Amino acid sequence: xxxxxxxxxxxxxxxxxxxxxxxxxxxxxxxxxxxxxxxxxxxxxxxxxxxxxxxxxxxxxxxxxxxxxxxxxxxxxxxxxxxxxxxxxxxxxxxxxxxxxxxxxxxxxxxxxxxxxxxxxxxxxxxxxxxxxxxxxxxxxxxxxxxxxxxxxxxxxxxxxxxxxxxxxxxxxxxxxxxxxxxxxxxxxxxxxxxxxxxxxxxxxxxxxxxxxxxxxxxxxxxxxx
Length: 226
Known about the structure:
Elements: E1 3-9, E2 22-30, E3 34-40, E4 44-52, E5 57-62, E6 77-85, E7 90-97, E8 108-115, E9 120-127, E10 131-138, E11 143-149, E12 155-162, E13 167-174, E14 178-185, E15 192-199, E16 204-211, E17 219-224
Parallel strand pairs: 1-3, 2-4, 3-5, 4-6, 5-7, 6-8, 7-9, 8-10, 9-11, 10-12, 11-13, 12-14, 13-15, 14-16, 15-17
């Protein structure tokens, strides 16, 4: 059985919260073949998600884009924290505050913890404030794509993967500083890692730690332009 759930909130005024602009969602689900999309379009956006199962497709849009568009000069906060346990899941987070005429916008925070194999994780953070992205995965043959783009704050990524056969692509661009910390552990199948940093007004730094236990070697590509 394939289950599809879409939650769309412009502003959620919850009776459990004293804040009139609180837009908070807490989800705990167990099972396979679930398609879940969460849309938060304004105010203080917060999602806490715990998913157990396989072949699930989970998307969280805060602000929105890619490409549900919206984001009409909004300055909402964007925070998403989630844990996914299982295999063959597709998990995506889109946080944006990009159409603003001026000002700094709100910071973006993402954190994913994934336990399982053959998962695909995509993070996109776009806007004029700072971006924090954290991904921790245990398992094999996982794919991670992290894009952080904006001109108003620092970009920071921390990615930790344990297992074989991972493919990781980190792209940080815009003004202000960019920092990436990556830890890849491998005991057999090679990993592929690509880092691109293109910032114009400040420094970019990175730290890569890798353990590669395969005779064919593991691939690391770093492109920097500031």
